[in-house]
Hints:
Helix content is about 35%, strand content about 15%. The chain has helices spanning about 5-10, 20-25, 50-55, 65-75, 85-100, 125-140, 160-165, 170-175, 205-210, 215-230, 255-270, 300-305, 345-350, 375-385, 390-405, 445-455, 475-495; strands at about 30-35, 35-40, 45-50, 115-120, 150-155, 185, 235-240, 245, 250, 270-275, 285, 310, 325-330, 340-345, 415-420, 425-430, 435-440, 460, 465-470. The strands form five sheets. Strands 4-14-13-10-7-5-6 form a seven-stranded mixed β-sheet, sandwiched between helices. It has a four-stranded mixed β-sheet with strand order 1-2-3-18. Strands 15, 16, 17 and 19 form a four-stranded antiparallel β-sheet that branches. Helix 16 (about 445-455) crosses helix 17. It is globular. The model is unreliable at about 295-305 (pLDDT under 50). Bound molecules: pyridoxal-5'-phosphate (PLP). Pyridoxal-5'-phosphate (PLP) binds near residues 124, 157, 158, 241 and 330. The site of pyridoxal-5'-phosphate has 15 residues, from helix 6.
Amino acid sequence: xxxxxxxxxxxxxxxxxxxxxxxxxxxxxxxxxxxxxxxxxxxxxxxxxxxxxxxxxxxxxxxxxxxxxxxxxxxxxxxxxxxxxxxxxxxxxxxxxxxxxxxxxxxxxxxxxxxxxxxxxxxxxxxxxxxxxxxxxxxxxxxxxxxxxxxxxxxxxxxxxxxxxxxxxxxxxxxxxxxxxxxxxxxxxxxxxxxxxxxxxxxxxxxxxxxxxxxxxxxxxxxxxxxxxxxxxxxxxxxxxxxxxxxxxxxxxxxxxxxxxxxxxxxxxxxxxxxxxxxxxxxxxxxxxxxxxxxxxxxxxxxxxxxxxxxxxxxxxxxxxxxxxxxxxxxxxxxxxxxxxxxxxxxxxxxxxxxxxxxxxxxxxxxxxxxxxxxxxxxxxxxxxxxxxxxxxxxxxxxxxxxxxxxxxxxxxxxxxxxxxxxxxxxxxxxxxxxxxxxxxxxxxxxxxxxxxxxxxxxxxxxxxxxxxxxxxxxxxxxxxxxxxxxxxxxxxxxxxxxx
Length: 500
Ligand SMILES: *Cc1c(COP(=O)(O)O)cnc(C)c1O
């Protein structure tokens, strides 16, 4: 075994990992990356099929981002944002504000510009920032006796610090920590493939496209809001992952859901906290005329190339006309190079914290590395690339290639649902596609398929029995095809007697 792998097994405790299994494994030790390719200590190479847990946008060792970090390193690596401003943090705040303020078609009532940026370290801390700001804002506008109340989505994931955990609703991740959490309410999130209100029989297409329902999931949100109001304790804020819920299992929302829900939440008087940690930085801002549909003949698969459209936005919320009151960014913010979080908010929230020094209305919150220069420099370079026409063209091409290649997977009876939102794709594996019967989690089908993919040189990490493919934006159509091919072969290896 590689000596670095040995040291890892001796000392490193990995996140979200059953270490008993890990200790029996021979871990892949990554030593180098270039573009979407990674190399391990044994010289084997891999495609980064989940963008290093959904963070990487423009590939590894990207010359433009490397150069920006090196240039900043020559000046200074880090100084504190407590009492000091710095060059890249100022420039990045300006760039972010410019990037997120667009006029939206069919804007949801109550939209305000996002003009203020609070820096933190990662997605969890950026979400905590929004949570604490909204808490203080509610108390300041409704009186110090008011206890703010929170609503978020079933299956929601917002990070692993305790505030974020309290807003999260994934049993396996969050229930053990109930004793540490504050109480928040959850409400039904759309999951068309498994929705009890969807009367459509399973078909070989993205469930959102053939669902038969009356937006009962939106009614459920309305009922939750009405109930809170009847109890005399309305909600202060509604927290959601826009477009698609990541850690829940890559669960996409049907077009129009967020617009409807955001309108009702604003009517209720609650703030909108958009957790764009995963979906932000243009991850979802490529739209296809339709989702990955079943291809019925070879002719259709070769001629049915769908052309994608890249929108001018970088937030998933904006595709639905929603300018949230808080936009929480991390993961791809630095291009996937350095830990960096940012919470964007409105002048109205900011103003509630203004007062004489002796009023002690400051936001008493922050981190040692807030506004870190290296992270901000990387983010600036990443946004430069993002806004280039080359990147936009690449993303459109990649989204189309992804949709077309994904459609080949419908041939497998183990594939229940295939979903794509922009440059996020996922395949839900099922025991029986005609009944949508799931594999039991203990069968570890997702884990085994991902191990088989790694042996074929493609890295991704399952969410239960859902296999995500989150390509970096610089993935070529050929590399995309390689990833899908590895997935198809791995399904066949792990779940044999299929794909004949
Ligand atoms: C990853 C993620 C987080 C947490 O971000 P970290 O940087 O891991 O703390 C929060 N929200 C969403 C939607 C995420 O996907």
